[in-house]
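Example record for the data management plan.
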Amino acid sequence: MWKELSVATTVRTPAQGSETRIGKGVEPIRAGQGTSFLLRRLHSLSGIIPVGAFLVEHYVSNAFATNGPVAYSDQVKFLSGLPFRLWLEIFGIYIPILFHGLYGLYIWWRGESNVSQYPWTGNWMYTLQRWTGIIAFAYILYHTWEMRFTGVDLVHHNDAAFFKVQYELRQALDLGAYVIGVLASSWHFGYGIFLFCAKWGIVTGERARKRMQWAGVAISLLFIVVGLATIKAFIRPNPEWQQLNIQQWQGADPPKLDHTKK
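Corresponding structural encoding:
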């Protein structure tokens, strides 16, 4: 099976028994590889649409927490009220994420790291991108279970959204998981944009690939800043925001916010 390598490798031609050096760069996905070609195409594409698009939306929606509990609950209410919400979640989020994550694990399991033989910066970045993918996938499963299927049902109790996340982040282990998840997801998406552009032939040439590579790193750093700022909004909220006792909504009655106070 064709191996997806990050920057360089060595191949031996059967007829001559000689070694041919392949230069640095991300090898494009090539046709003629049967099912593997199709699955790799779908895997690469799904990382941008719909998984990457959902990640952008998720970061933006969570960033409403920086404007306070009311703004955050209003955003959750908007998303919960989308038409065909359940089907959008199943076919636009859950299935694509499961496919991208599980097939990514398969590629990782079948692949070979060559960072020790070819210690270029790009190769280390590519290896980091693979490992962050594993971490991000595990975090997404944990985060989805905690927020969507346990505790207060945020679909029907939007006003509890800010305080549910705030309560989670008061636990040291949960806070650590959130920070690691933000770091891993941000890197995997940002650097994944570069890999997508390189594999699909959107950027060609050494100089163009190098520029796109650092653009991907910049996108990763931007998402990390946004993600950490959002976490800070939950653990150190503005004193002027309307505050509620967490114990009030751990029972049967979720909190009620005054939506006239933004």
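Summary line stored alongside the record: The chain has a mean pLDDT of 81.
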